[in-house]
């Protein structure tokens, strides 16, 4: 009973799909960002602004590595987790990695002007989305499978992941 780790840009549906997928598979759902917030007692935005992205990425790396030794999990990794090769190695060690994608327009609609998205605190959030997606694309391609969530319901995405991973988890 290996893990399924969902990666992808913010707003692609990792958390929503992850919860549905875990329920359908009888797995436990883990949201890496949520667990880091719970463990640290502060929001990700607070960690970024007060302690820096480097500190956050260290916490994220340690948490993802620890999860790779567990089984029966659907893991929602933060959007930037893939930029550290060690995270990708840990995710693949623990199971199958699925990248969720969506168009920049859909991502903008989904995340809107959310104050808990520290990397989008920019004068032009759409440009920032496009810039970050481009910079991370090479890392997202390292996933075992990719599912474009742009025109799919979360339930349909979960079903597609179950189909793609049949016999692999």
Short description:
The protein has 169 residues and is α/β, with parallel strands linked by helices. It is built from eight helices and five strands; from the N terminus they run βαβαααβαβααβα.
How would you characterize the overall build of this protein?
It is a single chain. With 169 residues, this protein is α/β, with parallel strands linked by helices. The protein has a single domain, classed as 3-Layer(aba) Sandwich (Rossmann fold), CATH 3.40.50.300. It has 8 helices and 5 strands. The chain has helices at residues 14-25, 32-40, 44-51, 53-67, 85-94, 104-111, 125-140, 154-165; strands spanning 3-8, 28-31, 73-76, 95-101, 145-148. The N and C termini lie close together (6 Å). The mean pLDDT is 92.
Beta percentage is 5-15%
Name the helix and strand elements from N-terminus to C-terminus, one letter apiece: EHEHHHEHEHHEH
- Spatially, the strands of the biggest sheet line up as 2-3-1-4-5
By DSSP (H or I, 4+ residues per run), the number of helices equals: 8
Number of beta-strand segments: 5
Poorly predicted ranges: none
Quaternary status of these chains?
Answer: single chain
The gross shape turns out to be globular
Sheet with most strands: 5 strands, parallel
